[in-house]
Design brief:
alpha+beta; 180 residues; 5 helices; 6-stranded mixed sheet; 30% helix; two-stranded antiparallel ribbon
């Protein structure tokens, strides 16, 4: 309640997301990145999960910060499910107090928190797009967790390589297509 947000940053980042969409520049949104992606494209957010969503997990714990973990479940037939070789979910870190309330049009939920169904990953999938060909439409993908903080030596945690590899492969393919 003591912080009113950063409206200028919100507007600026929202415009950047729309510009990237128009120019077919891939975007991988992490935490706030997912939130601003959803909000700027017509969705809404819970401003504070703990006070607005009854019975939710603790999605941000300042005392343990990036060591706060929970399970996520992948949406069947999602790209995230495919990227993780058919796994049904995994354990991720959780450092956020905001989350998606209403999903923006043309986005698909890719994962939810297993225990409370808070949306944890989204992907832009416009009507008529072929989900098996991610370079044929703009790539906007967001995760609520912080893959950059995931310890690669902890086998309990979901590997962050899949998200980064997917993003880089699509970006490279789109760049190659532009240069032809």
């Amino acid at each position: 309640s003591e912080w009113s947000g950063d409206r200028i940053r919100d507007i600026y980042e929202g415009k950047l997301i729309k510009l990237c969409l128009e120019r077919d520049i891939p975007v991988l949104g992490v935490c706030r990145g997912l939130q601003i992606m959803n909000a700027s494209m017509g969705g809404t957010l819970y401003q504070d999960i703990a006070t607005q969503v009854e019975g939710t997990l603790c999605h941000r714990n300042w005392d343990i910060y990036d060591q706060n973990f929970h399970n996520i479940t992948f949406t069947p037939d999602s790209r995230l499910h495919e990227m993780h070789a058919g796994k049904t979910g995994g354990i991720i870190n959780s450092i956020h107090h905001q989350s998606i309330n209403d999903l923006a049009p043309n986005f698909r939920v890719e994962a939810v928190s297993t225990e409370d169904e808070i949306i944890e990953a989204i992907r832009y999938l416009p009507e008529g797009a072929n989900p098996d060909d991610p370079i044929s439409f703009p790539y906007l993908y967001g995760v609520q967790w912080h893959p950059e903080f995931m310890d690669p030596n902890n086998p309990r945690l979901l590997s962050a390589h899949a998200e980064f590899d997917d993003f880089l492969q699509v970006a490279q393919a789109k760049q190659f297509r532009r240069n032809r």
